[in-house]
Structures are given as structure tokens and as C-alpha cells.
Amino acid sequence: MRSRWSPSVFDATHELGDDQVTRLLQAAQWAPSAGNAQPWRYLVAPRGSRAHQVLVAHLSRGNSGWVPRASVVLLAVAVTEPDAKKPRDPAYAVHDLGQASAHLTLQAHAMGLAAHQFSGFDHDAVAAELGLPEHARLLAGIAVGVRGDPGAVSERDAERDSRERTRRPLAETAFGDAWGTPWPGLTES
Ligand SMILES: Cc1cc2nc3c(=O)[nH]c(=O)nc-3n(C[C@H](O)[C@H](O)[C@H](O)COP(=O)(O)O)c2cc1C
């Protein structure tokens, strides 16, 4: 888990096999969820597919250079059931989608693939063009592929991959008996 990261330089000629994409989806399939509701859905958009073309047309400027090069993008969607007898707080659908996507992302890493999640695109336009129903909320994309040659991409995208990665200290994340008081058992920061 510690060696996972989000590369921005993908090999634009690499293709993922259907069996590999299926393996990624299986990792998400077996994530835990509130009441086993499994509120995640994924639209699979291999480079060149119609879904991919729709997404690429609506990427933010910062994502338009690197996302299209990935072999496949999985569009992550949370579904809620507002008409259920006992509707669950819709926040859990979002929570559980994130958890399924984390499983998928770590599975990609375990398979030697690069995975980079992103939210910078016009969600409403993509959702409308791909026919998402009312209670399906498109939240993110997961670009998956293999790392490419930094010389083949813009300087900006290549530079991102050499930036230092940082994290907030655990003492600011893990609290003990009161909010804001670091859990005293921490052995590392
Ligand atoms: C929900 C979500 C949205 C993100 N959106 C973008 C994005 O639009 N563009 C981008 O380049 N990276 C995006 N990222 C990647 C984060 O910037 C990245 O995960 C974070 O900087 C930590 O880096 P690491 O994954 O290498 O540890 C997103 C990640 C997540 C989980």
C-alpha cells in the first residue's frame, strides 16, 4: 500500500486485456458496504471507446493531457435507492464507492499497473451523454494503464511524476480520548 502512487505519464499504446479489467472489477466487487448494498457501479471506457470519447471531450484542462493516454478509464458511480422501504443515508453510497475504488486501485497496483483517480471533468455532461439515471451519481474516473515515457508528454505532466509526495502527520489524523488529542499509541508519524 505504501508503494502505491498516482502516475500521470501513461503509455498511450498499451492496451489492457478484458481479463485484467475484469480482475480489477472483481476487487471492487468484494469491497465491504453498508448492509451489503454494493452501491458502486463502473462504466468501463477503454481508450477509443465511445464512453472514452465522451469523457475526453469533457476533461478539465489539467487532466486533458494525461488521462486520454491511459489504457482504460473506469468511471465510478454511486447509486442510491431513495424509494427503498428504509432508505439509507445516501452518504454511505459515496463512502462505499470510495472503498470499492480503493480496492480496485490497489488491485491495479498489485498487478503492476498504474492507476490514477481523478475528478476534474464535467460530471453532468458525461453523465447525461452516457445515460446515467437520476439516482446514479458520477463521482470520479480511475485511469489505469502502464507507465510511459516522460519524454512523450508535456513538461508539466512529466514534472508531476517527480514531485515529492507528502502526507499530514498521523498525530493530526488519529485522535484518542478527545478530538484533536493525538492517539498516544502512535509509534511513527
Ligand atoms: C476523488 C479523487 C479525485 C482526484 N482528482 C484528481 C484530478 O482531477 N486530477 C489529478 O491529476 N489528480 C486527481 N486525484 C489524484 C490526487 O491528486 C492524488 O491521489 C493525491 O495527490 C495523492 O497522491 P498519490 O495518489 O500519488 O498518493 C484525485 C484523487 C481522488 C481520490
From TrEMBL:
Chain intervals for the UniProt region annotation (Disordered): 150-189
Gene Ontology MF terms in the entry: oxidoreductase activity
Occurrences of domain Nitroreductase (ranges): 2-49, 59-145
SUPFAM superfamilies, per database record: FMN-dependent nitroreductase-like
Signal sequence coordinates: none
CDD domains: TdsD-like
Gene3D superfamilies to which the protein is assigned, alphabetical: NADH Oxidase
Residue ranges, compositional bias (Basic and acidic residues): 154-170
Pfam assignment, any one: Nitroreductase
Alphabetically ordered keywords of this record: Oxidoreductase
Family listed: Belongs to the nitroreductase family.
Protein name per UniProt: Nitroreductase family protein
Organism of this sequence: Nocardioides faecalis
Lineage, top ranks: Bacteria, Bacillati, Actinomycetota, Actinomycetes, Propionibacteriales
